[in-house]
Write a structure and sequence with these properties.
Helices cover 71% and strands 4% of the residues. It is mainly alpha-helical. It has one domain. The strands form two sheets. The chain has a two-stranded antiparallel ribbon with strand order 1-2. Strands 3-4 form a two-stranded antiparallel ribbon. Strand 3 and strand 4 (201-205) form a beta hairpin. Helix 3 packs across helix 8 (237-258) and helix 3 packs antiparallel against helix 9 (268-288). It is globular. 33% of the residues are buried.
Length: 326
């Protein structure tokens, strides 16, 4: 069993396998027991499931704090909060995707569940590449930091612009080169039916498959922001990956509650823009002050303050909408 103690990306292999085991068990319980059959998920169930995921994520963070030290624990918590916050913008885009493809709530959980499997693999690849680059070329952190500042400014300037699903080039390519049905076929991603051109039986993508594809694309796009953001907090691949995955798992569960009140979080995008600029500028500020890095407690405190201000301002500005819903 010596191979379990082999170092992989700075941590023994058993540590990585233990984390993946926890995630597999959580997903197996989710799909195999709780949501074995397609059903419409209500706000209450969404909140309860999300709370369970958040508690598990925080419990894992508590273990990281105990096993790896206070600094690692603080970095995990900061990464967890930042990733969950940035992923909230992802939720708004996913809601647009489901609306565009007319995916009923009955089948949305199926898309989100299979989407998370893609996220687990894609984030692992991106974080592995990022960690290798940072280890080999320390100046890459400054590139990440500058990119975050640029992204934050861009997010602020385009906060009022909605995501145009139909204009996505990948979606256009798929529709041109693959067979796609005009309507949903229950919870199926693929169906076999007669090809109008040849009359022969052929496999067709359904709109549910296109929705899943778009969700994965959106995840990749948002990972381009979130992965550099957490590398600006810590360069430990284990902390980066585990905080990313736990945050995403919890937010996907919370989707059904958030999607019902998307319009009430409009100003959160401005807070996220400020947060990205803050995270990116930390590296340059630390250098200017002659520090190795900004203390984790300071980073976490400012992160909470920015997000609390964004959420509070959003809820305050839309209070009349909540009191008198359309």
């Amino acid at each position: 069993m010596d191979f379990l103690f082999v170092d992989w990306l700075g941590k023994p292999l058993w540590l990585w396998l233990s984390f993946l085991g926890i995630v597999i068990v959580m997903l197996a319980v989710d799909l195999g027991i709780v949501h074995r059959k397609s059903k419409e998920i209500g706000v209450t169930e969404s909140l309860v499931t999300s709370a369970a995921y958040i508690l598990l994520g925080l419990a894992f963070g508590g273990w990281v704090w105990w096993y790896m030290g206070a600094t690692a624990g603080m970095n995990y918590l900061t990464g967890f909060v930042v990733e969950k916050s940035l992923a909230m913008d992802n939720v708004f885009v996913i809601a647009m995707i489901f609306t565009y493809f007319a995916v009923p709530r009955l089948y949305q959980h199926r898309v989100l569940f299979w989407g998370i499997l893609g996220v687990i693999v894609l984030r692992a690849i991106m974080i592995g590449v990022g960690a290798t680059l940072v280890e080999q070329f320390s100046w890459v952190l400054y590139v990440f930091a500058a990119f975050l500042i640029f992204t934050g400014v861009k997010m602020w300037l385009f906060a009022d612009k909605e995501y145009d699903v139909a204009a996505n080039p990948v979606l256009k390519f798929v529709r041109r080169h693959f067979r796609v049905t005009d309507r949903l076929h229950g919870e199926h991603f693929w169906v076999k039916q007669a090809d109008p051109a040849t009359g022969k039986q052929a496999w067709f993508m359904t709109p549910l498959m296109l929705a899943l594809l778009m969700v994965e694309i959106v995840d990749v796009v948002f990972a381009v922001d979130s992965v550099p953001a957490i590398f600006a907090i810590t360069t430990d691949p284990f902390i980066v990956y585990t905080s990313n995955i736990f945050a995403i798992l919890g937010l996907r569960a919370l989707y059904f509650a958030l999607a019902a009140m998307v319009d009430r979080f409009h100003y959160l995008k401005y807070a996220l823009a400020i947060l990205l600029v803050f995270i990116g500028s930390k590296i340059f500020v630390a250098d200017a002050l002659g520090l190795a890095k900004i203390p984790p407690v300071a980073s976490l405190s400012v992160t909470f303050a920015i997000l609390a201000a964004g959420i509070g301002w959003s809820l305050w500005k839309t209070r009349d909408q909540a009191a008198h819903p359309a």
